[in-house]
């Protein structure tokens, strides 16, 4: 089924341009010229991925992101920004962005990122069988894409879920940040691997007993991260 994209961008020319490129790739696009309108659309339509400009009249892209993240934890979110100082804010824990792009960007690159995120939002074909991944107090039901700790569900974003699944599938293996980028984001990320760190930090804050002293997701100094195993 075609994926639905919510595109919130106040500049007409950029919005049309992105829309054309997404539609050419068989995405269904809902356009909004401001955040309030975007949130209305998200309440009415089943949106898979939101592409949000940061600088908007009225409520800004950060607020739209936060509201969407709280209401629709499974939605994929990509933020667009023209300012480098916004990136630190985008990387803030509270927003839970799956990806971001800096303006000006190549529309082909945005389409690639949307495609990659669409795979994280959607179950991949091998996920259509009943499969349970387990480690210590944790379980992932791959079929329903649910993550549990001590049998209680912990709601993860599409990107956090993909990272957790990768870890539970290959427990004890050290992954470099670049490997995680390539496997989870699915392309050679042009930018820095901070997006991996921020997603790991969010995941730790949700699953660790003490996120300040992470036990399950170990930091492998100079490399990346590893899921603790007793084996
Ligand atoms: Ca703008």
What does this structure look like?
By secondary structure, this protein is α/β, with parallel strands linked by helices. The protein folds into 2 domains: 118 residues, Response regulator (Rossmann fold); 103 residues, Winged helix-like DNA-binding domain superfamily/Winged helix DNA-binding domain (Arc Repressor Mutant, subunit A, Orthogonal Bundle), CATH 1.10.10. Helix content is 39%, strand content 22%. The protein is built from 8 helices and 12 strands. It has a 5-stranded parallel β-sheet, with helices on both faces. The protein has a 4-stranded antiparallel β-sheet with strand order 6-7-8-9, with helices on one face. Strands 10-12-11 form a 3-stranded antiparallel β-sheet. Helix 3 links the parallel strand 3 and strand 4. Helix 2 runs parallel beside helix 3 and helix 6 packs across helix 8. It is globular. The mean pLDDT is 92. The chain binds calcium ion. The site of calcium ion has 5 residues, from loops.
Quick one: biggest sheet? 5 strands, parallel
The SS-based structural class is: alpha/beta
Sketch the topology as an H/E string, one letter per element.
EHEHEHEHEHEEEEHEHHEE
Note the quaternary state here.
single chain
How many structural domains? 2
Strand order of the largest sheet: 2-1-3-4-5
CATH architecture of the largest domain: 3-Layer(aba) Sandwich
Helical residue percent?
A: 25-40%
User: What compounds sit in this structure?
Assistant: calcium ion
What's the CATH H-level superfamily name of the largest domain?
Answer: Response regulator
Q: Under CATH, the topology of the largest domain is which?
A: Rossmann fold
Residue fraction in strands: 15-25%
Global outline: globular
Task: Determine the N-to-C terminus distance.
Answer: 41 Å
Which CATH top level class of the largest domain fits? Answer: Alpha Beta
Number of helical segments with 4 or more residues: 8
The total beta strand count reads 12
Average pLDDT, to the nearest integer? 92
- Radius of gyration over alpha carbons? 18 Å
